[in-house]
Each structure stands twice: as C-alpha cells, then as structure tokens.
Write a structure and sequence with these properties.
By secondary structure, the protein is α/β, with parallel strands linked by helices. Helices cover 22% and strands 13% of the residues. Strand 3 and strand 4 (53-56) form a beta hairpin. The radius of gyration is 20 Å and the shape is globular.
C-alpha cells in the first residue's frame, strides 16, 4: 500500500465520491437481481502495475441481490438448508448451533463533534445548537451486556484499513484474514450477521465478507430488536473461539475502479456508464445538512437518492418486500438494464 498526499487529485476525489459497490443487472433483471444499498465510506488502493485506483464498496445497510432471497430458495452447497442472504429470527433460532453468528453493531458518532463541510455555514440550523449532545454509544459494551446466544463481536472500526485517512476502508486480504481467523471462522462456515438497530451496519459487514469471497453469509432480518422483541435467547458472556486459519480471495468484480467513476461523471457518452444510487438521507444528499464526516455536503452528479431507511419497515426493522423495493426503484427511474453502483458516507 502506498501513501499519498492529502492534496492529491485522488484524495480530493475521495472526499466527493466516497464508497461505491457494483452489482451488475441483466436486461431481464428481477427483484432477486437488485444490488446493495449500503452505508460506508471509501478506500483507494493502487493496483500493482497500473495507474488506476479501486474504490471498494461500503457497504451497508440494505441489500437485495440474487442471494438476498426469501427462505426456502435454492442455496449454495454447505449453506444451511432453507437459508438465503436474508434469514428470519425463527430460522436462526432453529439453526443457532449450525451457524456462526456475528454481532456487527456500529454507531455513527464523529469523534470531533459536528463535522463542517465547505458550505455548512449557509445550511446551518440554529435550532441544532439548542439540542443536548447525543450520548455516545459503545457497541462492544452493549455486546458484553446482551447479545444473541453464541454470537461473536465483529468490530467494524478494527476490521478496516487503519492507515487510511478515510473511515472504514476495506482492509487488505491479509488484515481481513487475521481478524476473521481470530474470530474462529472458517471459509466454509455459514455466517449470520446482525446489528442492534435492525438493518444498519450488518449489511456492510455482509458485503465485506462477500467482497473477500466468503460464500455462505446472511443478514438477520430485523436484527437484535426483532430477536429480543420475540423473546428469543440472549446471553451476556463474551465468546472466546478457537482461532482458525482463514484465507480469503478478493472479488474484484465487486469493486469499481476509481477512473471508471471519474469518467462516468465527466463523460456522458461513456460506453460503460452505470446508475449510481446514493443511500444517504435526503437532506445530506441535497446538501442542506452537513455530513457527519469532515467532507463537503452534496452528492455525485447524476446520482439517484434512495435513502437506506426508506427500504426498512420502521416498526419491525425488517427489509421491505422485494416487490415494494422494486416499485421504489422504478419510481426513482433506476434503469435496471444498466450496472448499479451503490454508495453512502458512514
């Protein structure tokens, strides 16, 4: 990995573009072909022998791909029967001893307080100054107090590129392998991921596993709130698994090249153009609210705003039906005949 000056063109582009993930949709795309709407940030990684920079996707909050199917669909070998990319609380309780469960809870809470972008002054809301600061939340501490029985804690802040100036950049394969080995996970384990907000940070971790080639990984629909609300078993004893020897393989087709994104923005005749979906809240997308990270407000030109929260039921914290999500994409004029790049800033 090579370090670059914060004044470089790449770094300036990072501040605007952030994280992206690719999901290619064929012309006959159906609900099962939808891509990932996630929340995360951007990592730039120079490829040996080239002058291009890859932009690994974020990840995640929401996901609907061919693998994010309903329970009971055909699944890959070694995956627990009846599972898909999205599993229910009932299914997980029935298979709790046959899968590896990860608590991937993470909270967005900038260390330096309210971030200020280049145009924050005109967008500032005086009422915000009257609000008491939100209490800091500690995901690891919450895990030690209550988690799904047998769950291990996945620290999103730690399993990232610690040398990047941007948060939550994908780690190297070696770094990922080290962390996953410490969690005692093997390449053929079926991993089920949840978070304490329903569907928020778990899909980002789901995508990270997929980006490093893990075949059998699912997100718990509704997360810990639904699990606890239904009276299912929880524990407070942290897990100490026996370390494994995990070996990953980066899936480059899940990462878009920096130069492709740049050409997409600057050349409308580019043959490989794709649709860009921005999963941030509307006020941040429009530039009316400052970013929680120290980057300017606004969005990538021609990107489409579909807030991640709009695709989650506010009461059950579960993902909306594929039919409802498809309707939303069509309403926003998302061209399902083109590749889709999804992004956010978290």
């Amino acid at each position: 990995m090579s370090l670059v000056s914060p004044l470089s063109r790449r770094d300036l582009w990072n501040r605007v573009c952030r994280m992206t993930a690719r999901s290619v949709l064929p012309p006959s795309a159906t609900c099962q072909s939808l891509g990932v709407l996630t929340g995360s940030s951007l990592k730039s990684q120079r490829q040996p022998g080239t002058r291009s920079f890859t932009i690994p996707t974020s990840p995640a909050r929401l996901a609907l791909t061919g693998e994010f199917a309903e329970e009971g669909v055909a699944t890959p070998q070694k995956t627990v029967a009846g599972s898909g990319g999205l599993v229910s609380t009932a299914w997980l309780e029935d298979n709790l001893d046959r899968v590896v469960v990860l608590d991937a809870t993470w909270y967005l809470q900038p260390k330096a307080g309210k971030a200020k972008g280049a145009e924050d002054e005109w967008a500032f809301d005086p009422k915000q100054a009257l609000k008491p600061p939100a209490p800091l939340k500690n995901a690891r501490k919450e895990y030690s107090q209550r988690h799904i029985r047998g769950a291990r804690f996945f620290d999103l802040d730690e399993v990232s590129d610690r040398f990047s100036t941007m948060p939550h950049m994908l780690p190297t394969a070696e770094e990922f392998d080290e962390h996953i080995s410490a969690l005692g996970i093997n390449v053929d384990d079926h991993v089920v991921i949840y978070d304490s907000q329903g569907i928020f940070s778990a899909p980002r971790v789901w995508w990270t596993f997929k980006a490093f080639g893990h075949k059998n990984v699912s997100v718990l629909d509704g997360g810990l709130p639904k699990w606890v609300g239904e009276g299912r078993p929880v524990a407070s004893t942290p897990q100490s698994p026996k370390p494994s020897e995990y070996r990953s393989e980066l899936q480059e087709d899940m990462i878009i090249d920096y130069q492709d994104m740049l050409v997409h923005v600057t050349d409308i005749m580019y043959a490989k153009n794709f649709s860009v979906i921005d999963a941030r809240p509307r006020d941040r997308f429009a530039g009316f609210a400052p970013e929680p990270r120290p980057i300017p407000s606004g969005h990538i030109p021609a990107s489409i705003n579909i807030p991640a929260s709009d695709l989650v039921d506010p009461d059950t914290k579960t993902l909306l039906s594929k039919k409802d999500i498809m309707r939303r994409l069509i309403a926003e004029n998302v061209d399902l005949r083109r590749p889709i790049v999804t992004m956010c800033v978290e």
